[in-house]
Design brief:
- This protein is an alpha+beta fold.
- The chain folds into two domains: about 120 residues, no CATH class; about 35 residues.
- Helix content is about 50%, strand content about 15%.
- A three-stranded antiparallel beta sheet has the order 3-4-5. It has a two-stranded antiparallel sheet with strand order 1-2. A two-stranded antiparallel ribbon has the order 6-7.
- α2 crosses α4.
- Bound molecules: zinc ion.
- Zinc ion binds next to α6.
């Protein structure tokens, strides 16, 4: 077993540990990070490595694929810092330093405690804040508080998640168009009907040629 397949095996094990649904993942967070009995500086290097793999698996998993949200979105989180290293032409996930694991732990504790106290939690990130809250009728909402250009980008991203598979570029006129039906169209309405007319005329010509003896 080379180093890469060893890492792959560790990650698969970690993925089983955190599960593939939000229900399993929240239980993983509670037992492995939020629980007051777990103190990262006290745990041994082997267990710390295991926890590091689990956090990587947590960051990589996307639950939507397993049990789609109402809208069918898959939400994936990709850490933007250099989270991988290359060695001998292979890509390895970078394990976290103990200090980073401690940060993850205090984040998890703080956010979950806030959520329980206020039915909301704020997730600040460079460029804005995501507020995760519950309306009076119990509906969960995400409010993303960010400058208007970022808000516009995010809104576009959500729009494309919702209807992106109804957009196509016409292979004849290059115009981008929206289509209602599930079937994938490769021509816009105008070019599509033009093509049907062309095909129809071609068939007529062929029939005509056959009738007049293939000249
Ligand atoms: Zn067209």
């Amino acid at each position: 077993m080379n180093q890469y397949s060893k890492i792959r095996a560790q990650l698969d094990k970690a993925q089983d540990e955190i599960g593939r649904t939000p229900e399993r993942a929240v239980q993983w967070i509670l037992t492995r990070l939020v629980d007051q009995k777990v103190d990262i500086p006290d745990i041994g290097p082997t267990d710390r490595e295991k926890l590091s793999y689990e956090v990587i698996a947590f960051l990589q998993c996307h639950w939507g694929g397993e049990r789609p949200q109402k809208s069918g979105w898959v939400i994936e989180v990709t850490p933007s810092e250099k989270s991988h290293m290359v060695s001998k032409g292979q890509l390895y996930p970078r394990l976290f330093e103990p200090d980073t694991l401690i940060q993850f732990q205090s984040e998890a504790r703080g956010l979950i405690n806030n959520y329980l106290a206020w039915q909301s939690a704020d997730f600040p990130f460079p460029g804005g804040t995501v507020h995760c809250l519950r309306l009076e009728d119990g509906r969960p909402v995400l409010v993303i508080d960010t400058p208007s250009i970022s808000a516009f980008r995010l809104k576009c991203a959500f729009l494309l998640l919702e209807v992106g598979n109804h957009l196509a570029k016409c292979k004849d006129c290059d115009r981008i168009f929206y289509f209602e039906r599930r079937r994938i169209n490769d021509r816009c309405k105008t070019c599509g009907s033009n093509q049907r007319v062309r095909l129809c005329r071609k068939r007529e010509r062929q029939r005509h040629r056959l009738r007049s003896g293939g000249k």
